[in-house]
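User: Before I run my own analysis I want an independent prediction to cross-check against. Here's the chain; please return only the structure tokens and, at the end, one sentence I can use as a sanity check.
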Amino acid sequence: MTGAGKGPWSAVLKRRAEISPSCRLLIFERPAGFPDAAPGQFVSIRVSDSPMPLLRRPYSILDLTGSALSLLVKVVGRGSAALGSARPGETFDMIGPLGGVPFPEPTAEEAVLVAGGTGLAPLVFAARSWRRSRIRARTTLLYGAATKDELLRDLAKTAFSAGRFATLDGGAGFRGTVVELCRDLIASGRLGGGVLYSCGPRNMVRALEEAAGAHFSAHYTSLESIMACGVGACRGCAVPVRCGDGSVLRAICSEGTVFPAREIMWEEWEE
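Assistant: Structure tokens:
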């Protein structure tokens, strides 16, 4: 057991949809007793009853309603391939919601949310949750992917007040990275102020903080990492954050996943 309210749960898959060449939308029946979750929290799933893959796989919660739990899965290896090919009716062993620190609610009139790849998931959950809570902040999404085919535009359009896209090959939207898009919008006076939220590859988030962090009142990021235990015991997902004149290691899985980007010691954080 992982502790009260964390499971494990038996989650039945209701629907699976291919929403890009590599990404699958999985919608599970919400297990009876599954607690409410906050944006930035995640679940950890045993993808197979066989000995391999050995470790559970962590996935950010894309959405949680009274009857359904939604996840976004990118197929990149054996574990994600097994989950991404599951059929409705299959049951999975799941623990969660995990993560000790979710995204804070916006206190400014505008929230800018920057996503790279499947980093879109917790930001969709954030925007939907704030809307359900009648938080009036305008949510502007900046979202980047390598190609047009990998942009999850239909999913993105369901959650945010406005959005801009970037692709590396220029197949859709701005040609370049989502960080370059953000920097151009700031330089032209069309963006800045309010609160910045992000999730995506580590290099993207670091570049975003260095290029744009100072133009916002705060920058909160949900960090992605390989996780073994998911509850902070193994310390395999530790990240160095500022503490006085030095730094201290915090477990992303239990003391995150959300951190103020300005407090992360990027130069000390090794893969």
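Sanity check: The longest helix spans residues 120-132.
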